[in-house]
Write a structure and sequence with these properties.
The complex is a heterodimer. Chain A contains no helices and 11 strands. Chain A is an all-beta fold. Chain B has no helices and 9 strands. The chains are: A mainly beta, B mainly beta.
């Protein structure tokens, strides 16, 4: 069974940093690209970032470019999102999602971790 | 402002049919597969339709998808109260080199 479990969310002050983790199991992590998707309270889904299976290719939403960094550790079946210079508008539930390459969609999602940026 | 445009809400009676539209452009829907996601209250999104019209195993055939040009449509027949949820379309955008979602449509089964 595919499982994605996010962790690392919490309360952080504006301008602060946070590192999210996503632990993957139930599939061969090394052959799948991965995504981060977020959802602000009461709002819709916003795609945040993509990383290829090897970690050599990354893409970012304009709203986080230059502030967030996606990475992965294939030896530990883990995905990460380093978030710096956090703003109030980054407050959201952050979901880790597996990317189905040929179909270009997120086929499995974690339960999400809440990040709150507030003083 | 989402790259993909969906109606904010739709409603219909139990047993009836509803469609949800998703409009984009040549850089996204026009040249990429469309997927649809259902998000029940308080839960993570779940894929309903992928590659425009394919259903994952376990998704009933009451749910269908189609695409024409730069627009896509999700259809739900035989509406049930359990279908009340937010529905999102999604795809890749070549110009942005980014994933994109619609703003979401809230389905109410009256």
């Amino acid at each position: 069974e595919v499982q994605l479990v996010e962790s690392g969310g919490g309360l952080v002050q504006p301008g602060g940093s946070l590192r999210l983790s996503c632990s993957a199991s139930g599939f061969t992590f090394t052959i799948y690209s991965m995504n981060w998707v977020r959802q602000a309270p009461g709002k819709g889904l916003e795609w945040v970032s993509y990383i290829s299976n090897s970690g050599s290719t990354m893409y970012y939403a304009d709203s986080v470019k230059g502030r967030f960094t996606i990475s992965r550790d294939n030896g530990k079946n883990s995905l990460f999102l380093q978030m710096n210079s956090l703003r109030a508008e980054d407050t959201a539930v952050y979901y880790c999602a597996r990317w189905h390459g040929s179909g270009q969609f997120q086929d499995y999602w974690g339960q999400g971790t809440l990040v709150t940026v507030s003083s | 402002q989402s790259v993909l445009t969906q109606p904010p809400s739709v409603s219909a009676a139990p047993g009836q049919k509803v469609t949800i539209s998703c409009s984009g452009s040549s850089s996204n829907i026009g040249n990429h597969y469309v997927s649809w996601y259902q998000q029940l209250p308080g839960t993570a999104p779940k894929v309903l339709i992928y590659e425009n019209n394919e259903r994952p195993s376990g998704i009933p055939d009451r749910f269908s998808g189609s695409k024409s040009g730069t627009s896509a449509t999700l259809g739900i027949t035989g509406l049930q109260t359990g279908d009340e949820a937010d529905y999102y379309c999604g795809t890749w955008d070549s110009s942005l080199s980014a994933g994109v979602f619609g703003g979401g449509t809230k389905l109410t089964v009256l």
